[in-house]
Amino acid sequence: MRTLHSIRPRLSAAVVATVVALAGMVAFAGATATPAYAASGCRVEYRTTWATGTQFGTSILFTNTGDALNGWELQFAFPGDQRVTAGWPVTWSQALGSNEVTAASNAPWSDNLATGASITLGFYGTHGGTNTDPTVFTVNGTTCLSVPAANQPPAISITSPQSGQLIQAPAPVQLAATAIDDHGVARVEFRVDGTLVLADTTAPYAGVLTGFPAGDHVLEATAIDNGEPPLRTSARVPFHVAAPTGALVVTPTSLVVPDGGQSFFVVQMTAPPPSAVIVFLTRTGDPGITCIPTTIVLTPTNWSTGVVITCTATVGPPATTVYTLSATGYSSVSTILTRP
Questions:
Q1: Which architecture does CATH list for 248-339?
Q2: Considering Cα of 129, then 132, then 133, then 139, what sign does the dihedral take?
Q3: For the chain, how far is it from start to end, CA to CA, in angstroms?
Q4: CB-based burial of residue 114 (10 Å sphere; 0-12 exposed, 13-18 middle, 19+ buried)?
Q5: How far apart are CA 167 and CA 151, in angstroms?
């Protein structure tokens, strides 16, 4: 017959073994259940999309390269005196007198950023000195990989002349273009029919050309940026220059100027010009006969009455002088003056 004390030790050992095994299981399970913090990682590409004077616009491509985010703050500091004036599509802040800027998610659609997901941010800004790009960015305190943005070509648009515009000679040809670039515009070059006629380094990019021959022409405007390497973009428009209407007329074509006296001739046009015509008087021959004024303007209102030219001869031996009248877009005419 068994006694109780011979069974109890064995039962105690079994219970102990079970408890120990259970304890080991609990300890292992506890180790595997320890929570892990999200691994942070980010990539930022900062690009100045346009710059004009003291104003500029910027695009920032922020990519989450770490664990999924639920709420984030992107922070950076301007190297200079730049100020953010407006930003999107999240909340932007920059304390007065500070160069540090924060862009923070502000809605469920922007809070949650999965691994590998990107969001594009943008802002407008101003500066008083040099607009140098920031290079250090953090997201939730983690420093991001900052990738320099590749230089982008400039954008250019010709505003004058309009495509297909008819310009009546001798009216001047007005050249104008607008150009923007993320690194700024170094210059705008204007070419007519392939020939460089103007280069402008400051906005507004414009100029005036006179004396263009009648016929069909093509204006090409090219913007060159300040990037490295410099990039260029061109725009082209056709235009037509019509031959001038009317002609210069001088009456009379020969004139006697008395010794020590005066005579007169008149400069007119055979038809009204589309705009003011500047006429230049050039003398060849004896300097003892002079005429004034040496520059006149014929307009749509005085073309038929013309302008009177006064000629004076000094006292001296017989002499001859020729005055030639010329204007851009018109054939030259002349009158012969003699002192008997």
A1: Sandwich (2.60)
A2: negative
A3: 174
A4: exposed
A5: 38
**Which amino acid would we find at residue 14?**
A
- State pTM to two decimals: 0.51
| CATH number attached to the domain at 155-242 | 2.60.40.10
Distance CA 290, CA 175 (A): 38
Does this chain's domain 42-148 share its CATH topology with 248-339?
yes
Burial (CB count within 10 angstroms: exposed 0-12, middle 13-18, buried 19+), residue 274: middle
pLDDT for 211 equals: 78
The domain spans of the chain are 42-148, 155-242, 248-339
Minimum mean pLDDT among 2-6, 46-50, 154-158, 214-218: which range?
A: 2-6
Per-residue pLDDT at 179 exceeds 90:
yes
User: Contact 146/111 with Cβ under 8 angstroms?
Assistant: no
- Tell me: cis bond preceding 229? Omega within 30 of 0 counts: yes
Class (C level, CATH) for 42-148: mainly beta
pLDDT score, position 14: 45
Tokens of 299: 């307009």
